[in-house]
Amino acid sequence: MTSTTEQFADLSATTLLRFATAGSVDDGKSTLVGRLLHDSKSVLTDQMEAVEAVSAQRGQDAPDLALLTDGLRAEREQGITIDVAYRYFATARRRFILADTPGHVQYTRNMVTGASTADLAVVLVDARNGVIEQTRRHAAVAALLRVPHVVLAVNKMDLVGYEESVFAKIAEEFTAYASDLGVPEITAIPISALAGDNVVDPSANMDWYGGPTVLEHLETVPVSHDLTACPARFPVQYVIRPQSAEHPDYRGYAGQIASGVLRVGEAVTVLPSGRTSTIVGIDALGESVDIAWAPQSVTLRLADDIDISRGDLIAPSANPPATTQDVEATVCHVADQPLSVGARVLIKHTTRTVKAIVKEIPSRLTLDDLSQHPNPGQLVANDIGRVVVRTAEPLALDAYADSRRTGSFLLIDPADGTTLAAGMAGESFASEAETTIQADEEGWDF
Fold first, then answer.
1. Which residues of 377-392 are buried (b: 16+ CB within 10 A; e: fewer)?
2. pLDDT at position 44, please?
3. In CA terms, which of 63, 233, 344, 446 is 20 to 30 Å from 357?
4. Could you say which DSSP state residue 115 is in?
5. Structure confidence at residue 191 (pLDDT)
6. What are the beta bridge partners of residue 410?
7. Would you state the pLDDT for residue 35?
8. Closest Cα to residue 413, out of 327, 318, 344?
9. How far, in Å, CA of 153 to CA of 123, rounded?
10. DSSP class of 269
């Protein structure tokens, strides 16, 4: 029987990669995804037959592989991607969850949705056009979301004669820009999604390129953000008290470990109350275990009877997050109605939801050149900006740079439950200098 310690040691083997594609309109994102699925033999026969039928109806000689991801009627009619299309496939080396995101400026919020959980982002560039405004926009969003790996796929190399100089110029410009944003790893690959060059199989037309194909890179890139290496965070989802004859005194706290490792005998602090106790038991899948790690769903039992409810966060006493009612963050506004200074909102952080007021919007980011538009007064759909929010109750927030799970939150309209914005606590870009926004506390009524 495998011991708990041996099971924990096996966590280093990565079996799943989440990645997102992004790029300007007509750069070939959906065609690339379709080529990946087709050439890796991840397409079912009936799916391929449907694509072939639609392509034939359009008078196309070859199947349009973009149709494997563009499933909405409006997408097929206009030949564009509107919504985020999720696809699941696997090779012998790794399983994948991919998000094919739209390229239009007005769908920036959709890219934020698709890339928010990604370990890697594939940014496509048309070799004929090079790095353009939307390319920089997508690189900036990937940097804001702290996506650890970015692939620059220089597509349509067949239309520029497979010239190495064209690829080299684009790769150099993009790498310099993304590096300035703080993207930690950038890999440039010349491809033709339509012809299949360097997507799954190496290209016979670019013998000057000695790097991996897109699929080879996806299969071998290390997922550097190890949830188990972060400090332990356990948002409580549910309090279990059966009060039955079999379990008259059982009191457990159920939830999913957001990050880190928890062990029986470990001293923990419950936030925001600050009460302390010790883990005396961990129940996982109906059995007691000595150790548990992210992202397992477990039930914790503590030595002391503490007032704990949904929304509380349990963390090691040696390394708890700070609690605050003053949240400074970068947000991407995703709703059609504007977010204005003075707006009353709900802020949802892990399993906790509290009332809040938007006290200040210090700036709106212009992604074209990364300039800051000061004090815009409000954010509209697809805007990215800095906000200062005052909450009615303390939140146990990590910086988003330290934990994408416990450093993120949602702003919600209390009237109808509409999601207004996705937030990332702390500084914007990894390369940004340390700054502190001084909030004016006058008039805060919490």
1. ebbebbbbbbbbbbbe
2. 57
3. 233
4. H
5. 97
6. 348, 422
7. 82
8. 344
9. 6
10. E
Q: Which amino acid is at 229?
A: A
Distance CA 256, CA 238 (A): 10
Task: Output the CA torsion sign for 313, 316, 321, 323.
Answer: positive
Q: Is the pLDDT of residue 13 over 70?
A: no
Among residues 445, 351, 437, the alpha carbon closest in space to that of 390 is found at 445
Is residue 4 classed as helix, strand or coil in its secondary structure?
Answer: helix
DSSP calls for 302-360: ESS-----TT-EEEETTSPPPEEEEEEEEEEE-SSS-EETT-EEEEEETTEEEEEEEEE
CA angle 350, 233, 354 (to 5 degrees): 30
Can you list the pairs that 88-92 forms with residues at least 24 positions away whose Cβ atoms lie under 8 Å?
89/36, 89/37, 89/40, 89/42, 90/42, 91/40, 91/42, 91/215, 91/219
Question: Would you list the DSSP string of 128-189?
Answer: TT-S-HHHHHHHHHHHHTT-SEEEEEEE-GGGGTT-HHHHHHHHHHHHHHHHHHT-SEEEEE
Q: Token pair of 62, please?
A: 């070859």
The first and second tokens of residue 249, run together, are 């005194």
Average pLDDT on 435-441 reads 32
Type of residue numbered 216: E
DSSP tag of 101: -
**Residues 372-380: contacts with CB under 8 Å, at least 24 apart:** 377/340, 377/341, 378/338, 378/339, 378/340, 378/341, 379/331, 379/333, 379/338, 379/339, 379/421, 380/333, 380/338
Is the alpha carbon torsion for 417, 422, 427, 432 positive or negative? Answer: negative
Is this structure's pTM higher than 0.70?
Answer: yes
